[in-house]
Amino acid sequence: MAAFDENGTTDPPLADSYRKLLRRDELGGALARESLAVLERDLPMIDLKRLTSGDARERDVCADAMASAASEWGFFQVINHGVGRELLEEMRREQAMLFHQPFDTKEKAGLLNGSYRWGNATATSLRQLSWSEAFHVPLASISEEDAKLSSLRGMMQEVADAMSRVAETVAGTLAKNLGQAGSTFPAAAGCDGTTCFLRLNRYPACPFAPDTFGMMPHTDSDFLTVLCQDQVGGLEIMKDSHWVAVKPHADALLVNVGDLFQAWSNNIYKSVEHKVLANSKAERFSIAYFMCPSHDSLIGTCGGPSPYRPFTFEEYRRKVQDDVRRTGKKIGLPNFLKRSTIS
């Protein structure tokens, strides 16, 4: 849970940021109130073991179910994924010890190559402020020497390697479904062990819940995300213009399509908006693996005319950052439509 120091401020200082915005934001605590009525749903469940079945029909049925989920939901769960429960539980313990260090240590000590971030210090309204903290670490730097965090780095590398195998299996299967060479897709798209990211997330218990975003609504700016979440819950996704609460499953990982895969698939696979709501009683942890290409990779197409003009991953990231600074929110793929109406 969030700790308070002798001055009454929280560690990290999330509550202080919210109090400042509450005093001048007309929305008050109503920004997430519409989420209280959402239904909790089980996402489509994909058994990855079926992809290695000796029965070709069973393999095809599994691949078709995955493609259908990526098209209709943009999110799905996978089981028999090969990422051991004991590994994830040990990672969770290491993660908790990391986040429970003093805020000044996390912010100023350069831990994990200075990848720490919290909330949104530049937020100008409650809709832009997230009640969370994270370490967003490039895979290329996980193994760098750091005597203080050697155990954590080793654990992160194991988790990243295991999650990367899941991401490659899923991405290859989805690419093959569109007539591409699935076995070469991640590499052909510019993704490898040096271009992807591992993100450790913590959502402290929040005195403003349930009217607080743990993470504001967004889509992911990558090809594919593999997520391990705990049983606290709070993740919601957009389905048929309504928010749906995702029911946690102890043995499953979540997979979601990112913006780049939607563009590459000519909008067949969907990158859907999602958010996290804060919890008033329990802190929440999650680990996310982001399958990203190199910055200069050109985002291609699975074939046929694309609705999007050519763009690189760096160009996409830069445009997202510019839009957030200018408007307070991400615009994303609509910026790159050949017939874009975005000014």
Automatic annotation (TrEMBL):
> Does Metal-binding show up as a keyword for this record?
yes
Sorted alphabetically, the Gene Ontology BP terms of this entry are: gibberellin metabolic process
Reactions listed under catalytic activity: gibberellin A1 + 2-oxoglutarate + O2 = gibberellin A8 + succinate + CO2
**What are the required cofactors?**
Fe cation; L-ascorbate
Task: Look up the EC number in the record and give it.
Answer: 1.14.11.13
Q: What keywords are annotated for this sequence in UniProt?
A: Dioxygenase, Iron, Metal-binding, Oxidoreductase
Residues covered by the Fe2OG dioxygenase domain: 192-293
Matching entries from Pfam families are given as: 2OG-FeII_Oxy, DIOX_N
InterPro entries documented for this protein? DIOX_N (IPR026992), IPNS-like_FE2OG_OXY (IPR044861), IPNS-like_sf (IPR027443), Iron_ascorbate_oxido_reductase (IPR050231), Oxoglu/Fe-dep_dioxygenase_dom (IPR005123)
Spell out the molecular function terms from Gene Ontology: gibberellin 2-beta-dioxygenase activity; metal ion binding
Keyword Isomerase tagged:
no
Would you say which domain of life the source belongs to?
Eukaryota
Task: Return the similarity comment.
Answer: Belongs to the iron/ascorbate-dependent oxidoreductase family. GA2OX subfamily.
PANTHER family (alphabetical): 2-OXOGLUTARATE (2OG) AND FE(II)-DEPENDENT OXYGENASE SUPERFAMILY PROTEIN-RELATED
Q: What name goes with this protein? A: gibberellin 2beta-dioxygenase
- Organism expressing this protein natively: Triticum aestivum
Which lineage is the organism of this entry classified under, starting from the top rank? Answer: Eukaryota, Viridiplantae, Streptophyta, Embryophyta, Tracheophyta
